[in-house]
Design a protein that fits this description.
The complex is a heterodimer of chains A (226) and B (435). In chain A, 6% of the residues lie in helices and 50% in strands. Among the domains of chain A are: 47 residues, Rubrerythrin, domain 2; 90 residues, no CATH class. In chain A, strand 1 and strand 2 form a beta hairpin. With 226 residues, chain A is mostly beta strands. Chain B has 435 residues and is α+β, with helices and mostly antiparallel strands. In chain B, helix 2 packs antiparallel against helix 5. Chain B has 2 domains: 221 residues, no CATH class; 138 residues, Jelly Rolls (Sandwich), CATH 2.60.120. Helix content of chain B is 19%, strand content 44%. The chains are: A mainly beta (226), B alpha+beta (435).
């Protein structure tokens, strides 16, 4: 969809004001991180430069999740000490959003949930145990989740429309848990608080994608939706 | 110097200056130079040399950058690992497609596997058995340390030569599930068998061969070629045998059956009975005569058959002893007997039966002793004989020979199939892998 144009308060170049309902957008020229108040843009920091990658997803790619088709409107690039991944922001027609974490060719579609008190206690215990917690099991709503990953993560760069201002390079503790089916859960905590994300793993083909990025040496996949 | 391209990221090896093309930019976190083996960290904003090696480039069975189509999807070979667990060495080729992610091609001593990383955690890898997609998975390799001997190309994790990985494997439903505990993660991979010929065709490389051409034992998921053959052969043999039985039954139709019950009296000299005439039509046919008689205890009798061609007068003669002897702890019961004439030429035949008794013998002593112990003889009565004759009888012995001829090779094939499985499980950890 055509976005209204405004001038970037940092570099003065015309830039999109992003998606309605999302309070943050990046300048397409100078990578300034811009906060929106109505149609007014205010520079709140540097969005950083998202490095070149061969992700098949781009802003504008549409994905089907849970029977509803949404559009990718923004991305955060995250890193840890031995790797990195993309968090794509997927916005649905009703304005709701989900995050699509892309790493090693797999996609974890997550939405934030409000953790119960006992879950918070259990997850904080796992957090404290750090790597010792690998393989531990946690029951949430009768489903057994196994701790599969414990690491410190930081945001490297962002682009497009976003739901919150993220301070680049701010470190967070991240715990990934998986089930014997494809469900997944991520617990993130830092000095400001914690959040719990729940969702499931998918392959790209499971998300009936359209508007995928093209590559010179690769033919587009047969599973791409028209 | 790093430059972005439409698909490829180009750079130079900071050690040897060799030209590097990254095919999975943004996913790859480490590159091991294909020319000198030096390891370059890609996680930072600039490529950083982390270990310098000076070694000659080696020819890989599938060179880096080679494209190949497997199951309808095109893959690029982006990485190559040489691994060892102290017993065996094997190679792993990392495949990449931006739309489909990563897969593995694994070459062991015995053949190839196509590995797909799976999204779920199928089980606790400490379990010895579990169910996965309907199949019962059973542990075949206990958790063991495998070591990366050499890594070349680009990888989505920080692999280095000397890295130790703890892994364990399970087999079930013709598939292998392997689980690696790398750093902070359990990584499960579903390994499906792919033939060496299919690998060669897909990537345009030479066929490496597979067990039994290479290796000491089949891969855990290599289809048993003998079991397929044996099952097919068993099917063919069964069909053949059923057809043979059907033909034999059909041919046995149109025959005639007669029976006569007759009492042979020692006092009467006329102990001949006629079973009437039989037509043998078309071609030579089998002829079966059964006799069932009561010679008395510890006594005997015999039946002599004469099959006379009523046109030519030609005779076919056969005889059948009927005996019943016993002692305190033994018995010889031959009171039933069958005579088979294998091929009686076409014609009209009359069948007569002559019953002979011990009393006919000249030796009076034998006769006397027999008479003393024989209830029938003591009673001085006749001895009953039932004679049944049938033209076109079935030859069970021929069918039995046919059965052996058909099923002995099948049995041999099954034993080869079993041998394949025995060889396969001999490589597993634990020795009770019979199921």
């Amino acid at each position: 969809m055509m976005q209204p144009q405004a001038n970037c308060p940092q570099c003065g170049a015309p830039t999109g004001t992003g998606q309605p309902g999302l309070p943050v957008v990046t300048c397409t020229h100078c990578n300034a991180l811009l906060s929106k108040a109505g149609d007014e843009l205010a520079a709140v920091g540097d969005a950083g430069q998202v490095p070149f990658d061969v992700s098949p997803i781009q802003i504008g790619t549409r994905l089907m999740v849970g029977g509803s088709r949404g559009e990718i409107v923004g991305r955060e690039r995250w890193a840890w000490d031995r790797g990195f991944w993309n968090e794509w922001l997927l916005q649905f027609p009703d304005g709701s959003t989900k995050w699509v974490a892309e790493e090693a060719g797999l996609y974890m579609v997550m939405e934030e949930v409000e953790p119960k008190d006992d879950e918070v206690a259990n997850l904080q215990a796992i957090d404290a145990a750090n790597r010792e917690a690998m393989g531990q099991r946690l029951f949430v709503d009768g489903t057994a989740y196994t701790v599969s990953d414990v690491k410190i993560v930081r945001c490297v760069a962002v682009e497009g429309s976003l739901s919150h201002i993220i301070s680049p390079n701010f470190a967070r503790e991240s715990i990934d848990l998986r089930t014997t089916s494809k469900k997944a859960m991520t617990w993130q905590s830092d000095g400001h608080g914690h959040s719990l994300w729940r969702g499931a793993y998918y392959r790209l083909e499971d998300l009936a994608p359209s508007g995928l990025r093209s590559f010179e040496h690769w033919s587009r996949p047969e599973f791409e939706a028209g | 110097m790093v430059t972005g391209g439409p698909d490829l990221q180009n750079m130079e090896c900071p050690s040897c200056g060799g030209a590097i093309e990254l095919r999975a930019a943004g996913y790859s976190t480490l590159y091991a130079c294909q020319y000198c083996g030096s390891e370059i960290d890609l996680t930072g904003s600039s490529a950083k040399l982390i270990a310098e090696h000076v070694e000659a480039a080696r020819d890989l069975i599938i060179p880096l950058g080679t494209m190949g189509k497997v199951n309808g999807v095109e893959w690029a070979v982006v990485g190559h690992l040489e691994k060892s667990d102290g017993w065996d060495d094997w190679q792993e080729f990392l495949l990449f497609n931006p739309y489909n992610g990563y897969r593995w091609l694994v070459l062991t001593q015995s053949g190839w596997s196509f590995g797909t990383p799976i999204l779920s955690q199928p089980a606790n890898p400490a379990n010895d058995t579990f169910r996965f997609e309907g199949a019962r998975m059973k542990r075949i390799y206990d958790p063991a340390i495998s070591t990366v001997k050499r890594a070349i190309g680009e990888f989505y994790w920080q692999v280095k030569r000397g890295d130790d990985v703890r892994s364990t494997s399970f087999v079930g439903g013709g598939k292998v599930l392997s689980c690696e505990l790398t750093g902070d993660e359990y990584n499960w991979t579903l390994e499906e068998f792919i033939s060496s010929a299919d690998v060669a065709l897909a990537f345009g490389v030479e066929d490496t061969g597979q067990y039994p051409a290479i290796g000491d034992m089949p891969s855990p998921h290599q289809p048993n070629p003998h079991s397929d053959k044996a099952v097919n052969a068993a099917l063919v043999a069964s069909i053949g045998f059923v057809l043979a039985v059907l033909v034999a039954v059909l041919l046995s139709f149109g025959g005639e059956q007669r029976s006569q019950t007759f009492t042979a009296s020692p006092t009467s000299s006329n102990r001949t009975v006629s079973l009437g005439t039989f037509e043998v039509t078309g071609r030579a046919r089998p002829f079966t005569i059964k006799a069932r008689g009561e010679p008395g205890d510890n006594s005997w009798m015999y039946v002599e058959y004469t099959l006379t061609n009523t046109q030519t007068g030609e005779e076919i003669i056969a005889s059948q002893p009927i005996e019943y002897y016993y002692g305190r702890d033994w018995k010889e019961d031959d009171r039933n007997g069958t005579v088979k004439l294998s091929s009686v030429p076409p014609g009209t035949y009359e069948l007569t039966a002559d019953v002979g008794l011990p009393e006919d013998e000249a030796d009076a002593a034998v006769t006397a002793s027999t008479r003393n112990t024989s209830e029938w003889a003591n009673a001085g009565g006749g001895r009953p004989v039932v004679i049944e004759a049938e033209s076109n009888g079935m030859f069970y012995s021929n069918l039995f020979l046919l059965f052996l001829a058909l099923f002995l090779p099948v049995g041999w094939m099954f034993s080869r199939a079993l041998g394949f499985e025995t060889a396969r499980s001999s490589g597993y950890d634990g020795h009770d892998n019979d199921g």
